[in-house]
Amino acid sequence: MDDTTTELAFPRRDLLLILLGFPALGAVLAWVLPGLAHEAVTRLPWLPFEGPLRLVAGLDQLWQRGLFVAAGVAAGLLVAFIAVSESMKLTLTDEVLTVEKDDTTRRFARADISAVFPDGKELVVLDRTSRPLVRGEHQAPLAAVAAAFQRHGYPWSKADPHAADFRRWVPHAPELPAEVHVVLAARKDARRRKADEEVRDLTETLAQLGYVVRDDGGQQHWRPVTG
């Protein structure tokens, strides 16, 4: 192992593509939308949202189009900054993992980590009881992430080492306490409503009750923690 610091963030090319590409896309869409909206209300009068379409189609003055394009650029910038802020920047040393996400910084000692592995587009870090400490999309390419964690001596795995322990949630099944069923049912409803913050809170509640949950399509799967 080496005792240097490794930062895992977006490669400069990818970051420039995000910060410049989304605003450029917003500008292009804002420029062509009035023409497309005019064609739609003229040729397809049965389309829904006729009022908003006519409003956009009426942006025929140059200054109006300019303001609309400026709004498109602003919307693109907003999407770009959200994409950057919602993904994780990772900083590793031989002793500490630092995770920066959503203007929040958290630090975890390597000695408290039992496993690090990819799960789809997300990276998962487990503590010594197999509870998730970290779960989220990472900025750096997966190969660079894997190499850095291995170089600094973290317990990297190509897949979830506890994958075989998960079972599909069946409401009222006797293996789980009643309060766990209540939380899982609430979490399923929150997922249906796309209430992401509520889903995260309920996932944390399950961890406090001694259970880890993961999603596979529309199904919830659970397993007990190991300690």
Question: What does this protein structure show overall?
Answer:
The two termini are 29 Å apart. The protein has helices at 12-43, 50-57, 62-85, 142-151, 178-192, 196-208, and strands spanning 6-8, 89-92, 96-101, 104-109, 113-119, 122-127, 132-137, 167-168, 211-216, 219-224. A hairpin with a 3-residue loop joins strand 2 (89-92) and strand 3. Helices cover 45% and strands 23% of the residues. It has six helices and ten strands; from the N terminus they run βαααββββββαβααββ. Helix 1 (12-43) crosses helix 2, helix 1 crosses helix 3 (62-85) and helix 5 (178-192) packs antiparallel against helix 6 (196-208). 18% of the residues are buried.
How would you summarize this macromolecular structure in one to three sentences?
This protein has 227 residues and is of the alpha+beta class.
The rounded distance between the terminal residues' Cα atoms is 29 Å
Shape: flat
Helices and strands, in order, run as EHHHEEEEEEHEHHEE
* Low-pLDDT regions: none
The number of E-state strands comes to: 10
- Tell me the major beta sheet: 4 strands, antiparallel
User: Strand content of the residues, in percent?
Assistant: 15-25%
Largest sheet, spatial ordering of strands: 1-2-3-4
- The number of distinct helices, counting runs of at least 4 residues, comes to 6
> Rg, please?
23 Å
Counting copies of identical and different chains, the oligomeric state is: single chain
Q: Estimate percent helicity.
A: 40-55%
- What's the rounded overall pLDDT mean? 88
